[in-house]
Each structure stands twice: as C-alpha cells, then as structure tokens.
C-alpha cells in the first residue's frame, strides 16, 4: 500500500524528518524556505502533492481561506506547537479535517523561557549584556544597573495551565509567592498553595510580576491594555511567553516609558516576526525571538508527538491522541 502524502511546511529536527520519510511520502522543506508564510502557497503545494496531511507550525497562516483552498485529499492538519490560534479549527472541522497539536512536552521548556525573561527583566540582564558587548562597560560600580530581586515578590500567573504550573514550581524555588488568575480555581493538588483570584482588578493590584500564559485569539486580544496596566502597582514587571496578541503593545510601551512598569520580558509579538519598533528604544525590555519551546529535547518530543497524531489519523485510522476538534 502506498504511503500517505504528508506536506511538511517547515524544516524539522533531523530525527523527525527521518521518521516522517520512513512512514509517509513526506514532502519536506529542507531549507525552511519561506513559502510557508503564504496560505495560498501551502494550499497549492498540498494540491499538487494531493496531500493527505499537512504538518504545519506556529505562525503558518492556516486560516479559513487557506483551509478552504486545501484539496479534498487533506484529512489531517498537525501543528508542531501547542498553540493552534493560527489554525481556523471550525473551518477545518466543517471540512472534516482533524486538527492536532503537541501539548505537555513543551511545558517545562516554555516555563524556563518565562523564568529567563522574568530574571532578565528583574536584573536588567539584557541591558547589561548589551553594555558589555558594546565595549561600554567601565568596571564594577556600587550603583551600576541595579535591578530588583524576585525573592518574596508576588508572581501573578495569568492562565494556570500546564506551563503556568511549571513556572509556579520554578518560582517557588525563587521564594516567590504565587498568585493566579484563571477561569476556574484549581484543585489543591495542582494549586499547591497558590492564591486564586476571581477578579482581574484584585489580581492586578496584588501582584509584582505578571507572567502571561493565555492562548491567542479574539478572547484574549490585547488583554493587557492601558486600563489593566494602570491597575498594576508602580514598578511591576511584565512577562509574556504565551501569545503576542494578548498584549496591547502601544500601552505597554507607554507604561514602560513612563516607568509605571519597571521592566518587561517578551518572547512573543503581535504580528511576529514583526516587532513593534517602540520596544527597540527601551532599555527596560528584554526581547527574545519566540524561543519558548526551543530546546533540542523539547523540539524532538514535539516532532514525535506530531507524527503520533498523524500516524493515528492517516495510517491507523484511529482518533489522534491530541486532536483539538
Ligand atoms: C507553541 O507550541 O505554541 C509555541 O508557541 C511554539 O514554541
């Protein structure tokens, strides 16, 4: 029996491409050529190949238009990411296409990125690194680049899912007090003493640092806006390693420029890879290029998970373990 054709939009780790080529008629993108940025191009390639599946990644424009243009041969879309806000899931469901993601395996790595950003923001690490690299460091000085400690600070986790809970565990090691805001209060074994807030206002007024772990999409669009930033204490820190669209960039830039927000650490951006140039003028913001899950171990596990989902959908005829529709 011939292998199902699988269109892979992005360059993937070697072992994942080898497995994909073993089990599928895999159409790879070995040089990560940027055709994946165009939904029309993805659909054209899927049509030419008569693909049974598309293995895409965060940011690929798998919107309603792209999904509409896919050939009838496509039965599964597997994203190499936990987030699937780049996929119009109702449009896929309407066409009978199963959509899958890669949860769990990237929670620790993404929490590590949030912790990195929190430390960078608190301890002015980006600023210090830029100073040394530019040859502008003139030696140790008692008042140089003083940041703030995280010890005993109140960490507010917006979205206490798997990533938020991994971050809470890490932050306990930094002697932080954990607060969280979510739709529902967690059971005690997951909460582990973290303090639940059922209102945005009280949550924002209590915490010293916010770390955002909410999915992208209309429901969270520009959640952290000028009004909510104003409710945070002066000198608070903002960290976002979830989705860029949940922060109102102009509002955050203004709050950083005024000093109301002391510092921020961002890994994700509204409209990325474009970054609001207002951030570049600010020393008080640490900017990473969406590194959330970027460890060798995690990216390998994400690839295996994506292929397990595709195996189920296209080779075994079973329900994929991580279907989102
Ligand atoms: C995800 O998996 O959604 C991440 O943002 C990609 O690192």
Please tell me about this protein's structure:
The protein is of the alpha/beta class and 325 residues long. It has two domains: 122 residues, NAD(P)-binding Rossmann-like Domain (Rossmann fold); 181 residues, NAD(P)-binding Rossmann-like Domain (Rossmann fold), CATH 3.40.50. It is built from twelve helices and twelve strands. A seven-stranded parallel beta sheet has the order 8-7-6-9-10-11-12. A five-stranded parallel beta sheet has the order 2-1-3-4-5, with helices on both faces. α11 links the parallel β10 and β11. α1 runs parallel beside α12 and α5 packs across α7. The site of (2R)-2,3-dihydroxypropanoic acid has 7 residues, from loops.
Keywords:
325 residues, alpha/beta, Rossmann fold, 2 domains, 7-stranded parallel beta sheet, 5-stranded parallel beta sheet, 12 strands, 37% helix, globular, binds (2R)-2,3-dihydroxypropanoic acid
CATH topology (level 3) name of the largest domain? Rossmann fold
Give me the Rg, rounded.
21 Å
In helices, the fraction of residues equals 25-40%
Find the structural class using helix and strand composition: alpha/beta
Arithmetic mean of pLDDT: 98
Enumerate how many helices there are, as a single number: 12
Per DSSP E runs of 2 or more residues, the count of β-strands stands at 12
What's the overall geometry? globular
Number of domains: 2
Bound molecules: (2R)-2,3-dihydroxypropanoic acid
Ends distance: 28 Å
Write down the secondary-structure element order.
EHEHEHEHEHHEHEHEHEHEHEEH
Strand content: 15-25%
């Amino acid at each position: 029996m011939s292998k199902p054709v699988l269109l892979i939009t992005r360059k993937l780790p070697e072992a994942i491409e080898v497995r994909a080529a073993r089990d599928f008629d895999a159409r790879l993108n070995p040089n990560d050529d940027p055709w994946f940025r165009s939904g029309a191009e993805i659909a054209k390639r899927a049509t030419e190949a008569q693909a049974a599946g598309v293995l895409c990644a965060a940011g690929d424009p798998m919107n309603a238009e792209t999904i509409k243009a896919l050939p009838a041969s496509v039965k599964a879309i597997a994203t190499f990411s936990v987030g699937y806000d780049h996929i119009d899931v109702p449009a896929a469901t309407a066409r009978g296409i199963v959509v899958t993601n890669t949860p769990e395996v990237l929670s620790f790595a993404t929490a590590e990125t949030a912790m990195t950003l929190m430390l960078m923001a608190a301890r002015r690490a980006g600023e210090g690194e830029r100073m040394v690299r530019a040859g502008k460091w003139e030696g140790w000085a008692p008042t140089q680049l003083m940041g703030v400690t995280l010890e005993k600070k109140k960490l507010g986790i917006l979205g206490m899912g798997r990533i938020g809970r991994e971050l809470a565990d890490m932050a306990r090691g930094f002697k932080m007090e954990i607060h969280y805001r979510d739709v529902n209060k967690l059971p005690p074994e997951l909460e582990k003493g973290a303090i639940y807030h059922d209102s945005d206002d009280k949550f924002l007024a209590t915490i010293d640092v916010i770390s955002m772990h909410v999915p992208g999409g209309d429901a969270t669009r520009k959640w952290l806006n000028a009004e909510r930033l104003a409710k945070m204490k002066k000198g608070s820190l903002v960290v976002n390693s979830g989705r860029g669209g949940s922060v109102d960039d102009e509002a955050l830039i203004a709050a950083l420029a005024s000093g109301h927000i002391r510092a921020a650490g961002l890994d994700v951006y509204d409209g990325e890879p474009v970054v609001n140039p207002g951030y570049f003028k600010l020393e008080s913001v640490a900017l990473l290029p969406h590194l959330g899950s970027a460890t060798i171990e995690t990216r390998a596990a994400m690839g295996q998970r994506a292929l397990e989902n595709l195996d189920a959908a296209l080779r075994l005829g079973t329900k994929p373990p991580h279907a989102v529709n």
